[in-house]
Design the sequence.
C-alpha cells in the first residue's frame, strides 16, 4: 500500500488496533456480586496492609488503644488486613442486599459506603493514648481500603440486569 492510497479499515484491523476490554473489567461486570465483593475485599486488605507497612517503615508508631483502655497496644503486622476483612463482611452482605432490592444499587452502595467510611474516622480520632501520627494513618487506611473496595463493587452493581432488581 502506498502512502497516497487511502487505507480502508476493516473490523479486523480496528479490533487489533483498539485496546481490548480489560480482563479485570470483564470479570467485574460478569461475575456474581458476592464474588466481585470478596475479590475486592482481598485486594483491599492487601493494599491497606502494604500502606500500613510503608508507614511503619517511615517510623509511624503502630500502637493504639481502644476507648476505656489505659495504655496503647501494638497493632500487629496483619492487623490492618484483618480489620479490612472483618468489617468487609458487613459490606458484602450490604452489596448483595442492595443488588437484590435497591432501585439504584450502585448509587446507593457508593453513598452508603462513603458515609460509613467517613463515620469510621471516629474510631481513630477518639483512640486514647494513641499518637496523632498513628490516628492519621489509621484514618487514611480507611480511605485506602474504601478507594480499593468501593469502585469495583459499584461497577458490578451498575451492571446488574433490570429483572434481578
Sequence:
Amino acid at each position: 500500500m502506498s502512502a497516497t492510497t487511502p487505507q480502508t479499515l476493516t473490523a479486523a484491523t480496528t479490533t487489533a488496533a483498539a485496546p481490548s476490554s480489560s480482563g479485570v473489567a470483564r470479570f467485574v461486570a460478569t461475575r456474581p456480586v458476592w464474588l466481585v465483593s470478596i475479590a475486592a475485599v482481598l485486594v483491599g486488605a492487601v493494599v491497606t496492609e502494604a500502606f500500613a507497612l510503608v508507614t511503619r517503615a517511615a517510623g509511624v508508631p503502630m500502637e493504639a488503644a481502644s476507648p476505656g483502655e489505659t495504655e496503647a497496644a501494638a497493632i500487629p503486622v496483619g492487623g490492618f488486613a484483618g480489620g479490612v476483612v472483618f468489617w468487609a463482611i458487613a459490606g458484602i452482605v450490604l452489596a448483595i442486599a442492595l443488588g437484590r432490592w435497591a432501585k439504584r444499587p450502585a448509587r446507593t452502595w457508593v453513598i452508603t459506603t462513603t458515609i460509613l467510611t467517613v463515620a469510621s474516622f471516629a474510631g481513630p480520632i477518639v483512640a486514647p493514648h494513641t499518637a496523632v501520627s498513628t490516628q492519621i494513618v489509621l484514618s487514611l487506611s480507611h480511605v485506602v481500603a474504601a478507594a480499593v473496595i468501593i469502585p469495583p463493587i459499584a461497577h458490578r452493581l451498575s451492571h446488574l440486569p433490570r429483572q434481578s432488581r
Summary: The CA atoms of residues 102 and 108 lie 7 Å apart. The two ends are 53 Å apart (CA to CA). Residues 1-20 have pLDDT under 50 and may be disordered.
